[in-house]
Structure formats: C-alpha cells, structure tokens
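Protocol step 4 of 5: obtain the predicted structure for the target chain.
Materials: sequence only (see below). No template structures provided, no constraints applied. The aim of this step is simply to have a reference model before the mutagenesis design in step 5. Sequence pasted as it appears in the construct record:
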Amino acid sequence: MCIARFALILIVLGRAKEGLFVNTVFHVCICVSLTRGRHFARVAAVLLFALTVAGSAGSALAEKRVALVIGNSAYSNVTSLPNPASDAEAMGILFKSAGFDVVEQRQNLVSAEMRRAIRDFSDKAQNADIAVIYFAGHGIEVDGVNYLIPIDSRLERDVDVEDEAVSLDRVLKMIEPAKRLRLVILDACRDNPFGKAMKRTIATRAIGRGLGPVEPPTSDTLIAFAAKAGSTAADGAGANSPFTTALLKHLVTPGLDVRLALGQVRDDVLKATGRKQEPFVYGSLGGSTVTLTALTKNEPVPQRLDPNTDIARDYEAAAKVGTKEAWDAFLVTHPNGFYADLARAQRAKYEASKPASKSRKGDTAPQSLQHAPARRFGAVSSVKKQQVNRTQTSNVSRVAPEYCANVRAMLQQGRASGLSNDHPNMALGISGYRQHCKGAI
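Step 4 output (structure tokens):
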C-alpha cells in the first residue's frame, strides 16, 4: 500500500525537487526495505515508472514568467525618438504570444510613473521563475552608474540624474526575487543628447557616451545591451530598431537557450548595421538550458518572425507610409498573426494621435495622403500588389468597400505627386481597382 501511495504522490505532484524530493525518496526507500521476496521486482518497476512520470510531468509544467515592457519616445526636453514606443509595443505582443503569465506594457513614462511601474512590477516577480524587463529609450552612464531616462527629465547638471532618472541598480533589485532567470534588455544605448549639454558639478565626474559595463549583483542574471559599453545603438529607419528586430526574431524561439538566442540577436544586428553595432550581454547562468518558451504540449508556440518573409516586408512598407489607409490595406491582406496584432496597435496609435479636424471641401482623401511624396506611394506598392493578387472572388464582397477606398486614396496621392497612369505603381492600382471595384477612378 505504501508503494502505491507514494507512487501516486510522485505522479500527482509532478515535480520531485528540493526538500519534497528528498522526503519522498526517503519514504520510498523505507517501503522498499519492507518489501519481501518475489514482490520486489514488481515494486521496483512501479517506483521506476512513477519517478519517470514525475520527471516528465515536471518538465512539462510551465514556469511562471512575467515581463515589464517600457518604451519612451516622446521626450519633452530633447528630440523625440521615433522607434522606442513601437519597439515596446512589439515586444509586449511577443511576450504575450509566448504565453507569459504577466505582461505589463507602459509607454512614455514620466519619472514618477516609471519608478512606480518598476516598483509595482517587483510584486509580480516575487513568485516568478523568470522575470524580464525590457526598456527602449534614452539611457546614460554617469560616474560608472547606468540610468534609464524618463520622458520629462531635464538633466541640466550631472547631480540631477539621481533625482530625474532611474538607475539600473534599482531595476535589478526589483527583479531579484525571480527564482530561475532575471533578464534585463536595454535598447537604450542611443547617442544621448543629455550628456552633451549636461553641466558637471565636479570636473572629474565621467559622463559616458553610451551605457557603461555592468556586473550583475546576483547569479542567474543577464543584462543585454543593444550595443556594447561605450558605444551607441541605431534607432533604425524601419518600424523597429535593429536590436529589437532581431529580438523579435530569436528571443522566444521554442526550446532555444536564452544565451544562444541573444547570440543570434548579436549576429543579426552586426549584419544589419554593417558591423557598426554589436550587442553585448553581461552576467552568467548555470549549466542547464534556460528558455523563454519551452517545448511542451501546453505551451503556445509563437509565430516565428523572419524579416525576409512577404508579411514582414509588407509590414515594413505599411510602416513607412504610416497612415490609417496603409494599415487597413495590410490588415486586409494579413488579418491574423503577430504582425496583424502589431498593425492593429499601430493603427490605433495613429488614430489616437491624429488631430480632430474635418477635411476641406472637395477632399476625398486625408491631407496626409494628398501631400505625401511619391516615394511613399511606391513604398506601399508591395502591400497593394499582395492584396490584389491574394484577394479571392469568394470574399470580394467582404473586403471590397475598404479595399476600394484605400486604392482610390492611393491613386489620388500618386496623381497629386505627379505620377501618370502609366507609372507601374499607378497601373497596378488601376488594374486592381477595375478588377474588384465599381465606379470611376
């Protein structure tokens, strides 16, 4: 009876580790010692099966993973950064698609809000196995201490940094309770405008060009910089920075150790920037594999992101145009998946930021389209081409009104930019309109 009882305990609990494992094995050994004769082989087989099932069940249990994602773009006292808010939006969606238990997304935080967000996140990290903090925005190193900069910081003097910015040390302290992995990702090594104008109260006080090297205070902690200490990172000309683009592709690859994932991120960024930017990781982990997305049946597998796919190129084209019509065109062609979620977020952001104003009489397209340069019309051509080629007869009625309005607006934009109907992009739009829409163009 004791053998059956403890075998059941092992299977139900699913994890045999730490003190529980020692206590269970002790009782099992007692049961074995009390077993006699011909029953021993059968008992040993039952115990071996129970331990095997317990071990496999333990590996299948998902660890508790939590993430805080912050993107600061709208700096009020220096030039705004175009990508951090979009980078944070994309990373938040990525962590959600990977099945994280908690994903806190915050954008454009002033000092008090940023401190509070990090402090509140420490409560989420208390019982977590893996805790991740991602920050995109400005960062600075002063006297060997790294700081993340809120959007309302002035930093007129070097001593202001302690009051107006958030130290990396504080960030690390907030995720210390996480049991297996503490990961901080900083896309914050951009060329910093604060350091150039900052007054030094002590002549010998050093102000770094980027972030400075760091030694994590605890084991099982990794700190990933977009660029190695003392160098700067590119914000990027696309929808996301080169560093975040690579993170989106590799970081949550199922079964891939986080150290190998960050190594692949490094390789991609070096290639994308012509070896001008090299990400760097500080800290160390033990010998076991640590993944952000495990290979289990119950784990949602995130869509693998490859910037060379058609959907990624279409997303980049829509992002370059950056209008509601461009995002609508993208979503008609790609209604589901990771990039579709990103596109909806970008479309909502565009709608929220657009000033409330009525179009002038006679205008049939938004002013942003009428006055956009010709290169923008060309940039979205791949989206339109995909849409025309992939729209099927069975669903023309469902997409036609939105599609036709978008094509009509794009044609008006092209004509306003001086393109003739013979231009390849114009011809493509006219052909698609005549095939799927009614009425004069």
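Step 4 remarks: The chain has three domains: 2-60, 65-284, 310-436. The first strand starts at residue 65 and ends at 71.
Proceed to step 5.
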